[in-house]
C-alpha cells in the first residue's frame, strides 16, 4: 500500500525540524530535500480519514509557526496530501523555480486577516427586494416551487456579492496602505460575507492594527473579526496535491459562538 | 408545447439528461451500499466527488437561471404543465446532487462555487 504523505510546509532546506512537534495524528516528521528546498511531510493513513478536528488544525498551524520561527517557510494549506513520497518529490521538482521565488517573496512575511460576517439585519434588505419566502408562494406545483426557491436564493446571493464587493473596497482604502499585497474572498462561506487577507512585513503589524481599529469604528454595523498575524497561507500559490476535508465543524461552531457574544 | 421557449426547453432537457448520466455514473461506480458508505475511505474517491460535484454545480446554475426566465415568461400561459414537468427534472437533479454530497461527505460550502477572489483592488 502506498505511503500517503501529508505535506505541511516548504522550507529552504537549512531549517531544522522542531524535535518536539509531530505531523498529522502524531506521525513523525520527515524531510524531503531537493537542492535548496525541503518539503516537510508526515505519513497519513487514509483509513483514518475523518472530519478533521480542531486539534488537527492547531497541530498543523503550530508546526508551521515553529518552522517560521526558525527561518523562511511556505505554509501549505491544511489537509493537503499526496498519494506517496514520489508524488511530493515530483511536485517539488516540477515547481522548484516557482517555489524558490515564492520563498523569497513570502519568507519572513506575515498575514493579517479580516472576516466580515453575514449580518442577520441584512435579511430585511432581501425581503425589501422581494426575495423572501413570500415570493415563492404563488406557484403551481413542487417543480415550480423548487425553481422559484432557487430564484430567491440566487437573488439573495447576488445581493450579498454586491454588498461584499462594496465592503471590500471600503476595507481596501483603509488597510491596503499598510500592506504589501491583499486578497479578498467573496462569500467564502455562506455565513461569511467577505474574507480579506493582507501580506505584511512584521514591522507593519502595529500600523495595520491601528488602521483596522479605525475602519471598524467607522462601520459599526459591520461585524468584523480580525485575524493574525500568521504565516501567509493566502498568498502562497499552493502545490498540486489532493485537498481533503473541510474546516472542522468544531471550528465553525466556535467561530459562530464568538460572533453571537457580540450581539 | 411551451410556446416560443420550446427550443430552449429542449436544450435544457438534453443538458439535464447529460447531468443525470454524470451523476448516475458516479453513483454506479459503487456496486453496493456498503461500498458507497466506504467511499470516503478512498482519497481518490473523495477527490473525484469534489470534482464531479463542482462540474455539475457549475453547469446546473446557468441552466436553472434559464428555467427561471422561462417560468417568469410562461407562467400565465397554457404551458404550465410542461413547465412544471421541466422544473421537476431540476428538483430531481437537486435530490440526486444531495445524495452524492451525502455519499462523499461533501457539504455545499465545501465547493465554494459562489465565491470569487479579488486580487489587489488597485
Question: Can you describe this structure?
Answer:
The complex is a heterodimer of chains A (263) and B (122). Helices cover 40% and strands 24% of the residues of chain A. Chain A is of the alpha+beta class. In chain A, the strands form 2 sheets. In chain A, strands 1, 2, 3, 4, 5 and 10 form a 6-stranded antiparallel β-sheet that branches. In chain A, helix 5 packs across helix 6. By secondary structure, chain B is mainly alpha-helical. Chain B has one domain. In chain B, 73% of the residues lie in helices and 2% in strands. In chain B, helix 1 packs antiparallel against helix 3, helix 1 runs parallel beside helix 4 and helix 3 runs antiparallel to helix 4. The longest helix of chain B is centred in the middle third of the chain and has 32 residues. At the A-B interface, helix 5, strand 7 and strand 10 of A face helix 3, helix 4, helix 5 and strand 1 of B.
Break the fold down into its secondary structure elements and pairings.
The complex is a heterodimer of chains A (263) and B (122).
Chain A: E1 5-11, E2 29-34, E3 37-43, H1 54-70, E4 73-75, E5 80-82, H2 85-94, H3 96-106, E6 110-117, H4 123-128, H5 142-175, E7 181-189, E8 192-200, H6 205-218, E9 223-230, E10 242-243, H7 249-261
Antiparallel strand pairs in A: 1-3, 1-4, 1-5, 2-3, 5-10, 6-8, 6-9, 7-8
Chain B: H1 6-28, H2 33-37, H3 43-74, H4 80-104, H5 108-111, E1 116-118
Which keywords apply here?
A: about 260 residues, alpha+beta, Alpha-Beta Plaits, 2 domains, six-stranded antiparallel β-sheet, 10 strands, disordered C terminus, B: about 120 residues, mainly alpha, about 75% helix
Q: How many DSSP E strands of chain B? A: 1
What are the secondary-structure elements of chain A, in order, as H or E? EEEHEEHHEHHEEHEEH
**What does the main sheet of chain B amount to?**
none
Q: Please write the CATH class name of the largest domain in chain A.
A: Alpha Beta
Global mean pLDDT of chain B: 70
* Helix proportion range of chain B: over 70%
The CATH topology of the largest domain in chain A corresponds to: Alpha-Beta Plaits
User: What is the radius of gyration of chain B?
Assistant: 17 Å
Number of domains of chain B: 1
Biggest beta sheet attributes of chain A: 6 strands, antiparallel
Amino acid at each position: 500500500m502506498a505511503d500517503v504523505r501529508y505535506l505541511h510546509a516548504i522550507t529552504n532546506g537549512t531549517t531544522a525540524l522542531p524535535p518536539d512537534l509531530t505531523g498529522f495524528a502524531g506521525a513523525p516528521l520527515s524531510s524531503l530535500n531537493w537542492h535548496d528546498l525541503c518539503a516537510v511531510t508526515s505519513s497519513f493513513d487514509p483509513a483514518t480519514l475523518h472530519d478533521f478536528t480542531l486539534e488537527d488544525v492547531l497541530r498543523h498551524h503550530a508546526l508551521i509557526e515553529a518552522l517560521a520561527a526558525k527561518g523562511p517557510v511556505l505554509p501549505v494549506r491544511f489537509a493537503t496530501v499526496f498519494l506517496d513520497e514520489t508524488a511530493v518529490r515530483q511536485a517539488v521538482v516540477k515547481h522548484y523555480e516557482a517555489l524558490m521565488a515564492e520563498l523569497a517573496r513570502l519568507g519572513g512575511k506575515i498575514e493579517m486577516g479580516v472576516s466580515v460576517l453575514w449580518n442577520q439585519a441584512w435579511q430585511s434588505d432581501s425581503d425589501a427586494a422581494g426575495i423572501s419566502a413570500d415570493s415563492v408562494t404563488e406557484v403551481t406545483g413542487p417543480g415550480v416551487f423548487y425553481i422559484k426557491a432557487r430564484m430567491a436564493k440566487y437573488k439573495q446571493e447576488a445581493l450579498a456579492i454586491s454588498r461584499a464587493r462594496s465592503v471590500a473596497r471600503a476595507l481596501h482604502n483603509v488597510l491596503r496602505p499598510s500592506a504589501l499585497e491583499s486578497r479578498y474572498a467573496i462569500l467564502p462561506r455562506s455565513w461569511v460575507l467577505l474574507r480579506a487577507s493582507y501580506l505584511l512585513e512584521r514591522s507593519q503589524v502595529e500600523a495595520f492594527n491601528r488602521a483596522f481599529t479605525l475602519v471598524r469604528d467607522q462601520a459599526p454595523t459591520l461585524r468584523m473579526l480580525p485575524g493574525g498575524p500568521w504565516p501567509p497561507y493566502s498568498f502562497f500559490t499552493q502545490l498540486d496535491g489532493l485537498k481533503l476535508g473541510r474546516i472542522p465543524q468544531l471550528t465553525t461552531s466556535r467561530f459562530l459562538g464568538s460572533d453571537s457574544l457580540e450581539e | 408545447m411551451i410556446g416560443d421557449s420550446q427550443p430552449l426547453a429542449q436544450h435544457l432537457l438534453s443538458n439535464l439528461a447529460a447531468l443525470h448520466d454524470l451523476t448516475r455514473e458516479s453513483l454506479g461506480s459503487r456496486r453496493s451500499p456498503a461500498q458507497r458508505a466506504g467511499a470516503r475511505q478512498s482519497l481518490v474517491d473523495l477527490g473525484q466527488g469534489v470534482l464531479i460535484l463542482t462540474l455539475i454545480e457549475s453547469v446546473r446554475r446557468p441552466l436553472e437561471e434559464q428555467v427561471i426566465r422561462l417560468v417568469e415568461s410562461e407562467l400565465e400561459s397554457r404551458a404550465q404543465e410542461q413547465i412544471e414537468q421541466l422544473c421537476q427534472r431540476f428538483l430531481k437533479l437537486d435530490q440526486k446532487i444531495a445524495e452524492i454530497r451525502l455519499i462523499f461527505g461533501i457539504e455545499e460550502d465545501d465547493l465554494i462555487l459562489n465565491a470569487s477572489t479579488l486580487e489587489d483592488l488597485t
